[in-house]
Amino acid sequence: MTVLPDQSLLVARAAELVEAAKRAGADAADAFAVRRVGLSVDVRHGAVDESTRSESDDVSLRVFIGRRHASVSTNTIAPADELAMRAIAMARVAPEDPYAGLAPQDRLARSWPDLDLLDRSIPDAAALTERARAAEAAALAVPGVTKSGGASAGWSLTGAVIATSHGFQGSYLLSRTGVSVTAIAGEGTAMERDYDSDSKVYGADLRAADEIGRSAAERAVRRLRPSRMPTGRTTVVFDPRVAASLLGHFAGAINGAAITRKTSFLKNALGTAVFAPAIRIVDDPHRLRGLASRPFDGEGVATEALDLVEGGVLQQWLLDSATARELGLATNGRGSGGGGSPHATNLAILPGSVSPRDLIASIGDGLYVNELIGHGVNGVTGDYSRGAGGYRIVGGELVEPVSEITIAGNLRDMFARLVAADDLEYRYAVNAPTLAIEGMTIAGT
């Protein structure tokens, strides 16, 4: 039986590290401690392929001496004074950083909401095995499916603690449970595979395992006997599960670290129209039971929902204290523990007013993409080129599967022509509805 971790031990550990750093000569310090517990089961053709349980503690200590700073991390219970002395020695020889320092004290969280991030119903290995087997059995029962690519079910719990030398101390627990399955359809060289999955904070919120299995199988069967598309320019419609990747590229482009390094194609775009006028993008760390929700950021700064894009206009960068100082702005609570780069939380393109069916019907001929391959995106220029698979659109209908296609464009141009459907679902940390982009280049036959 898994027992919920005692956060008081992590809290005491983080506070001990901060005090040790001050004794060793640090002007300021913060500590970030994370405890992770996980259990997963992999099943293939009804038999348990692997069952894994993991537990780990990771601690990072960041110290400041004037404008010099250094961080040390460990996954062992090393003595606090030893870690502090090591960090101090590194900081003394580090170059000065005019933007280094703890978060401004007036931005620290003094209280925070209960975001309902902890499911106290903890599944055991038998329950996870049952979920994985149910998903796989449902997939294998779909006509046309010939093999299982495997199914898995898992549960994890993450406990995070932050302590700073200027008075912040906070902790929270986040649980997560999920199911995934891969189905293989066809025979020999004509086989196709696809998958489906779900992940939630609460196990009770998961889609039924057999529903996930059937969905994966039906996706795989629909991909059989794909054809090619001719090279040219056309409208591309992105299925929600791949549309979210476009939002991920946007988040990388507005990351404060990329802006300060001038390595983003949006580096001069703040306050300008980046998307079509109907597009609104929100980052909300306070979504109840959100997969990326958090009551405060990795520096102890109070968090709130941000309109990153409103009316198509870029409103905000993702900022922590250091990047905000360098840009002459204020942190907006997107800092990472241990001095990592700022990052988004629960990120979403809000839905438009047209259904996916009507959106597809309106474009006539085009390409519906539900698989992307490779990582051909240049964050500096915005150039975009990805392998893709999906369905050909003819006369406003999906008519046949297609594969071995490359879609290309420039993200700045793509964002400006983006149209959102009304089918947004909050299934992941980054979510998007069906999206359509006119005028993309297709490389096919």
UniProtKB/TrEMBL annotation:
<dbReference type="Pfam" id="PF19289">
    <property type="entry name" value="PmbA_TldD_3rd"/>
</dbReference>
<feature type="domain" description="Metalloprotease TldD/E C-terminal">
    <location>
        <begin position="231"/>
        <end position="444"/>
    </location>
</feature>
<dbReference type="InterPro" id="IPR036059">
    <property type="entry name" value="TldD/PmbA_sf"/>
</dbReference>
<dbReference type="GO" id="GO:0006508">
    <property type="term" value="P:proteolysis"/>
</dbReference>
<dbReference type="Pfam" id="PF01523">
    <property type="entry name" value="PmbA_TldD_1st"/>
</dbReference>
<dbReference type="InterPro" id="IPR035068">
    <property type="entry name" value="TldD/PmbA_N"/>
</dbReference>
<comment type="similarity">
    <text>Belongs to the peptidase U62 family.</text>
</comment>
<protein>
    <submittedName>
        <fullName>PmbA protein</fullName>
    </submittedName>
</protein>
<dbReference type="InterPro" id="IPR045570">
    <property type="entry name" value="Metalloprtase-TldD/E_cen_dom"/>
</dbReference>
<dbReference type="GO" id="GO:0008237">
    <property type="term" value="F:metallopeptidase activity"/>
</dbReference>
<dbReference type="InterPro" id="IPR045569">
    <property type="entry name" value="Metalloprtase-TldD/E_C"/>
</dbReference>
<dbReference type="InterPro" id="IPR002510">
    <property type="entry name" value="Metalloprtase-TldD/E_N"/>
</dbReference>
<dbReference type="Pfam" id="PF19290">
    <property type="entry name" value="PmbA_TldD_2nd"/>
</dbReference>
<dbReference type="InterPro" id="IPR047657">
    <property type="entry name" value="PmbA"/>
</dbReference>
<dbReference type="GO" id="GO:0005829">
    <property type="term" value="C:cytosol"/>
</dbReference>
<feature type="domain" description="Metalloprotease TldD/E N-terminal">
    <location>
        <begin position="29"/>
        <end position="91"/>
    </location>
</feature>
<feature type="domain" description="Metalloprotease TldD/E central">
    <location>
        <begin position="124"/>
        <end position="224"/>
    </location>
</feature>
